[in-house]
Amino acid sequence: MTTQTTQRTYRLEQKRRITGEFPGPKSAELAARRAKVVAGGVASSVPVYVADADGGIIVDVDGNSFIDLGSGIAVTSVGASDPAVAEAVREQVGHFTHTCFMVSPYEGYIAVAEKLAQLTPGDHEKRSVLFNSGAEAVENAVKVARVATGRTAVVAFDHAYHGRTNLTMGLTAKANPYKSSPAGSFGPFAPEIYRVPMSYPFREEAELKGEDAARRAITMIEKQIGAENVAAILIEPIQGEGGFIVPAEGFLPALAAWAKEKGVVFIADEVQAGFCRTGAWFASDHEGIVPDIITMAKGIAGGMPLSAITGRADLLDAVHPGGLGGTYGGNPVACAAALAAIESMEQQDLNARARSIEEQVMGRLRRLAEELGANSIIGEVRGRGAMLALEFVQAGTAATTKEPNPAATKAIADACLKAGVVILTCGTYGNVIRLLPPLVISDELLADALDVLEAAIREAA
Ligand code: PLZ
């Protein structure tokens, strides 16, 4: 297979460089200022403060250059300062920054909706609404499903992450830190949310087929809720915060078919997996799923805050005029950024680029896992496109109890950071390292980051 490299030129030198100690003096000064005014509930993964970012590089205020394997949690797929996005933003702010689409509308919003109708799965008639965050998109998908069906129950899955607002906290599976901790709870949570098991191939007792995992969930729904009461099932086609869990083949199609048969709205939360991340426009595309409603955010607008729901016209149009909206939803600057970011994705064929990243990373990590052997701390290497992960277990348990190893996971992420690679963890058990590089990262920089990661894993193993 050919290896697709990026043809772009970068504004910042694409090289990892740690100049002495970090956090350096300027980051330390900002940390001290922060401690006096920023709430402790907001945590940051790295102790350095950003001065600039471009391509696969983040430069801190003390002049250290880190390789970015997080993309600000899967946002800056086109890079953190894509020239086309930057230019579109500059152009738009020179005209108007805001009028509110609900007061005096503008073309950018419509152009984004046209693009979404074209890119999302299925060639049926579609409608879109734009918002600001992923959580807001999920909330609104549920609002639409409830009005359109006249039903109230919403089904979510184990290991799911859908946001931090009240409804989306309820939809999220993991208690600490999202819903509560020993310090207290953010509840009470919204009612009429039901949780069913996910297909998590690595952690199924026996090799459970996708259809069987779907049957397990469906049986539970029918028994405990009753299909006729279910407004929507909401699922991340590849789970993000929960651990980059790719369900067994056949799981998603079986759920979607059941939903269709029962008049249940099938909502795919593609906030993290969408927009070229998995080597396709949407993760739903890999199994030919056509969701009734799809939620999007993150990668959509090259770093500007924008989210969207796109779905069947009959569902979206069931809501009364004035029922959906918000002051900032579909902000004109964010819309201009989205149109530019999507054009960059098309022009640079970032779907192909994500598949090339998968080949390079998977090849190396699978070789490493094989070399370290079946009794090592690497439980599984998985993912699609540039949404890849390693799940770590206690040595010797990969084939049996698969005992999670959050300590090794943290040690590896810390070692990577020390060497100048920003890497994120995730997972219900905190034992997954996820790789989410900007899709415009160069092959050389990616290889350098993998050298660092590989050394850190060997050290921890
Ligand atoms: N749905 C699938 O991944 C956001 C959040 C990290 P917002 N994921 C990263 C954190 O600790 O807050 C996400 C997601 C999926 C919804 C959301 C929510 O998107 O833009 O953060 O609201």
Could you give the topology of this structure?
Layout lengths: L24 H13 L12 E5 L2 E4 L4 E4 L2 H4 L8 H11 L13 H13 L6 E6 L2 H16 L3 E5 L8 H6 L8 E2 L2 E2 L7 E4 L13 H15 L5 E6 L15 H12 L2 E5 L23 E4 L10 E6 H4 L15 H16 L2 H23 L5 E7 L2 E6 L13 H14 L1 E2 L1 E3 L5 E4 L7 H18 L1
Parallel strand pairs: 3-15, 5-8, 5-9, 9-10, 10-11
Antiparallel strand pairs: 1-2, 2-3, 4-12, 6-7, 11-12, 13-14, 14-17, 16-17
Helix pairs in contact: 3-10, 4-10, 7-8, 11-13, 12-13
The chain binds ligand PLZ.
In short:
This protein has 13 helices and 17 strands. The protein has 461 residues and is of the alpha/beta class.
Would you give an account of this structure?
It is globular and about 60 Å long. The protein folds into two domains: 3-68 and 349-460, Aspartate Aminotransferase, domain 1 (Alpha-Beta Complex); 86-347, Aspartate Aminotransferase, domain 2. The protein has 13 helices and 17 strands. By secondary structure, it is α/β, with parallel strands linked by helices. The strands form four sheets. Strands 4-12-11-10-9-5-8 form a seven-stranded mixed beta sheet, with helices on both faces. The chain has a four-stranded mixed beta sheet with strand order 1-2-3-15. The protein has a four-stranded antiparallel beta sheet with strand order 13-14-17-16, covered by helices on one side. 36% of the residues lie in helices and 16% in strands. The protein starts with 24 loop residues before the first helix and ends with a helix. A hairpin with a 2-residue loop joins β13 and β14. The structure holds ligand PLZ. Ligand PLZ is lined by residues 73, 133-135, 138, 161-164, 236, 240-241, 269, 271-272, 297.
